[in-house]
Amino acid sequence: QVQLVESGGGLVQAGASLRLSCSPSGRTLSTYTMGWFRQAPGKEREFVAAISRSGGATNLADSVKGRFAISRDNAKNTVYLQLNSLKPEDTAVYYCAASRSIGVRTSAYDYWGQGTQVTVSS
Questions:
Q1: I want to staple 25 with a disulfide (CB 3.0 to 4.6 A). Which of 3, 14, 40, 53 is the partner?
Q2: What's the confidence (pLDDT) of residue 103?
Q3: Whose CA is closest to 83, among 44, 119, 122, 30?
Q4: Quick check: 90 and 83 in contact, CB under 8 A?
């Protein structure tokens, strides 16, 4: 069982930046593809970004390309999501997830964190 813990969310103004972090308790992340998803009120959870086990490949949703970046430090057992040029429409709960396979669907991910709130004011 992998328990994921996110941190780094907060309330910021449009145009600001945040860095979200995700670390597990009890297991190493290096054997998992890692992803970030988000869910706004009244909307379905959507894919934001994913990174391969080695960190050599990443995938970003079109809505965040050029503004967000995903990275990982396997030595620190941590995955990051850098959020730049934030917009009010980025407001959501952001979830970290771990997958033993790969994909952009929520069903491809085996373990989830509790989420961290990101609120962007205009």
A1: 3
A2: 83
A3: 119
A4: yes
